[in-house]
Amino acid sequence: MTRPRQIPVRPALTEPEIAAARYVGSPEHKAERWWGGVPQARIGRGGEARRPKKEHTSICPKVTSEDREQASHWVREALRHRQFRFFEGDKLYPKHIWYKDQAGQYWFGFAINQIAGTYKGWPISEAERRENFD
Question: In whole angstroms, how far apart are CA 63 and each of 10, 57, 76, 126?
């Protein structure tokens, strides 16, 4: 079954709105110390990342200030190139975005604050990108 088209159709974000968007990260997707402090993801006995009350979680390897700036650039590029899908309940910024880096790795961005344009994110496969955005 194919997903319905974006409802409602939204006008493009303005350049100042895009410039204000940024990656802030999230401790629940970090397995090592990062600019935001101590990680909250836990590595289970089988080597899988877990977090409280969740079966598993994806780990984001972005942990340095340089990584944060790079990921913020990716967020802005995804918004600029409309690599997202708006849903009816979305605010100014779309809840879900995606970006393909120069190495061919896809990244999923999830809006932490849809008014301020702050995102967390983690690597995803091509299949996951198609499932969420095609």
Answer: 33, 16, 19, 23
Task: Please state the φ and ψ torsions of residue 23, each to the nearest 5 degrees.
Answer: -90, 130
Q: Exposure string (b/e) for 3-14, b if CB count within 10 Å is 16 or more? A: eeeeeeeeeebe
pLDDT in tens, the chain (134 residues): 666 665 667 788 999 999 999 999 988 888 888 988 888 877 777 777 766 666 667 888 889 999 999 999 999 999 999 998 877 788 999 999 999 999 999 999 999 999 999 999 989 888 888 887 77
Phi and psi at 65, nearest 5°, equal -60, -35
Tokens encoding 32: 């090592």
Q: Are 118 and 111 in contact (CB under 8 A)?
A: yes
Q: Do residues 133 and 83 touch, judged by C-beta distance below 8 A? A: yes
Q: What 3 state SS string does 88-114 have?
A: CCCCCCCCEEEEECCCCCEEEEEEEEC
Number of helices followed by number of strands (H, E) in the chain: 3, 7
